[in-house]
Specification:
Order of helices and strands: EEEHEEEEEEEE
Protein name: GFA family protein
Shape: globular
Keywords: Lyase, Metal-binding, Zinc
Strand order of the largest sheet: 6-7-8-9-4-3-10-11
Strand content: 35-45%
Distance between the termini: 29 Å
Largest sheet: 8 strands, mixed
Family: Belongs to the Gfa family.
Organism: Dyella lipolytica
Helix content: under 10%
Number of strands: 11
Number of domains: 1
CATH architecture: Beta Complex
CATH topology: Metal Binding Protein, Guanine Nucleotide Exchange Factor, Chain A
InterPro entries: CENP-V/GFA (IPR006913), Mss4-like_sf (IPR011057)
Structural class: mainly beta
Length: about 140
């Protein structure tokens, strides 16, 4: 079974996941743009079990549809490494794709909040786009 490790910039916080991702997506919402400091967030979803190594700071944000998301950051370097959804914490985790530091990581299949996408962003052919979050 494939095992992957994603780490923060300083290496204090990491997460180990197993198996292939359940999906890779990008989010263009303004909250993700602010959270990442980039024009979108790139996330990969993995089924449990996963293992967190190190200490994390948590920030809870309520999404447009009322769902609570808990984001985990490294308290040393500030890297936003992963997040979970309220009620699903034991089922799956969403990990920042860039934290795997793997240029061969699979491309996104989905793109949400395209109503907020920067006009110059070009995604791979075949990426399914949604104006907002389809859930």
């Amino acid at each position: 079974m494939t095992k992957r490790t994603a780490s923060c910039s300083c290496g204090q916080l990491s997460i180990e996941v197993q198996g292939e991702s359940l999906g890779v997506g990008v989010c263009h919402c303004l909250a993700c743009q602010r959270r990442t400091g980039s024009v979108f967030a790139a996330l990969a979803c993995f089924a449990a079990p996963f293992r967190v190594i190190g200490n994390a700071t948590e920030y809870v944000r309520v999404g447009d549809q009322g769902t609570k998301y808990t984001f985990r950051f490294c308290p040393v370097c500030g890297t936003n490494l992963f997040h979970t959804e309220e009620g699903c914490e034991l089922s799956y985790v969403n990990v920042a794709v860039g934290a795997f530091a793997d240029p061969s990581f699979p491309a996104p299949q989905d793109s949400v909040y395209e109503c907020r996408k920067h006009s110059w962003v070009q995604l791979p052919p075949g990426t399914q786009g949604y104006e907002k979050d389809p859930t």
